């Protein structure tokens, strides 16, 4: 069965996430991918694990882009049709309504259709029409937006100024790991765990997931956040990230982390002094983590790129020829940033060589 997966817009992370988890996927258009699964249940289970997935539609067998064919599929009062082919062809919603006992048409703002909140709240039968191939797709799944909002905004300790990762980004980062270090029962650690967001996403995916942080108060807050989600506080420990091997020697399949990147309200003229210290810290970590990781273990890490108004300061250039004797770099940096941010985030995947 074929499925259209709609992903969150705004960065290239979703494309890398989909490609890593589903290597046979193809891009339908920007932020929309075609995936193949054996059943709807298998498809829903698989895409629920993604951070970037927003909603998914299934290709309807034998349904064509005509009012009569689509009207037969409508079981709820509300329906919506959106053209996904390049041309200007549209279906007249009145023609569909005339074929229904009762029907209310909801107009989508753009070619991505309605938002998951509208679809779930108003129980909408949503269709995507491809006039080029005369195929029709129907939305069958939307992401659990209530759960994502809870994790983003309603944890005991939420501090936007501390540079927390949005939970969906944390989830997508975990999904950048290749299959042999990913999944149920694998050991995942975030050595700069902050509020514990990566740890929580790891637990939800079935990893044995742990967090450490050098700050005692931050560790305490992460523990409280974990407890709020029903997980053990013991999964968090206060520890310096360059000494992770004291606790996790040869045990770790996957390290996923957004490290310390300096104070959030840093003055631009201070950037040039901050960057060498950060590079030293990251290098110390990557060396220590070699004795934490199992053979072929993986690190998915944010490397900040600062801009002081004059030039870019990259931190990923610590991955030089010497470090490449120990780690294979699996991707070029995936850039992710919030609009107007003075620091952009380059996400790099490294695999321990043996
Ligand atoms: C950018 S925040 C991480 C935020 C986290 N990704 C989240 O979503 O909440 C960086 C964290 O690194 C911690 N930190 C700074 N230096 C550290 C070190 N040497 N070892 C371990 N943690 C450190 C800070 O206490 C802070 O909580």
From TrEMBL:
Keywords associated with the record = Cytoplasm, Methyltransferase, Transferase, tRNA processing
Q: Name one GO molecular function term.
A: tRNA (guanine) methyltransferase activity
Pfam families linked: UPF0020
Is Kinase one of the keywords UniProt gives this record?
Answer: no
| Any one biological process term the GO annotation gives | tRNA methylation
Q: Which InterPro entries match?
A: RlmKL-like_Mtase, RlmKL-like_Mtase_CS, SAM-dependent_MTases_sf
Cellular localisation: Cytoplasm
The Ribosomal RNA large subunit methyltransferase K/L-like methyltransferase domain covers: 161-304
Q: Domain of life of the organism in this record?
A: Bacteria
Q: Which CDD domains match?
A: AdoMet_MTases
Name the major location. cytoplasm
This protein's GO cellular component annotations are: cytoplasm
Name of the protein this chain belongs to: Ribosomal RNA large subunit methyltransferase K/L-like methyltransferase domain-containing protein
Natural source organism: Candidatus Collierbacteria bacterium RIFOXYD1_FULL_40_9
């Amino acid at each position: 069965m074929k499925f259209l997966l709609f992903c969150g817009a705004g960065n290239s992370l979703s494309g890398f996430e989909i490609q890593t988890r589903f290597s046979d996927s193809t891009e339908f258009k920007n932020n929309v991918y075609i995936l193949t699964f054996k059943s709807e249940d298998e498809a829903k289970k698989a895409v629920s694990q993604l951070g970037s997935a927003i909603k998914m539609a299934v290709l309807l067998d034998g349904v064509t882009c005509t009012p009569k064919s689509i009207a037969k599929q409508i079981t709820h009062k509300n329906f919506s049709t959106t053209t996904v082919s390049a041309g200007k062809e549209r279906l007249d919603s009145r023609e569909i309504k005339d074929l229904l006992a009762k029907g209310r048409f909801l107009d989508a703002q753009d070619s991505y259709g309605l938002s998951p909140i509208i679809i779930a709240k108003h129980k909408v039968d949503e269709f995507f029409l491809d006039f080029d191939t005369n195929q029709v797709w129907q939305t069958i799944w939307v992401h659990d937006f209530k759960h994502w909002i809870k994790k983003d905004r309603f944890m005991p300790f939420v501090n936007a100024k501390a540079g927390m990762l949005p939970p969906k980004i944390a989830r997508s980062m975990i999904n950048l790991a290749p299959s042999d270090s990913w999944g149920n029962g694998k050991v995942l650690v975030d050595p700069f765990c902050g509020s514990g967001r990566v740890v929580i996403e790891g637990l939800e995916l079935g990893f044995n997931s742990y967090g450490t942080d050098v700050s005692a108060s931050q560790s305490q807050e992460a523990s409280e956040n974990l407890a709020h989600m029903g997980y053990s506080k013991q999964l968090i420990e206060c520890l310096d990230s360059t000494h992770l091997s004291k606790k996790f020697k040869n045990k770790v399949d996957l390290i996923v982390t957004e490290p310390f990147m300096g104070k959030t309200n840093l003055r631009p003229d201070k950037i040039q002094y901050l960057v060498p210290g950060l590079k030293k810290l990251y290098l110390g970590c990557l060396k220590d983590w070699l004795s934490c990781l199992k053979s072929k273990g993986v690190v998915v890490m944010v490397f900040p790129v600062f801009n002081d108004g004059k030039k870019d300061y990259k931190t990923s250039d610590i991955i030089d020829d010497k470090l490449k004797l120990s780690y294979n770099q699996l991707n070029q940096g995936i850039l992710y940033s919030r609009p107007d941010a003075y620091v952009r985030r380059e996400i790099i995947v490294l695999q321990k060589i043996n």
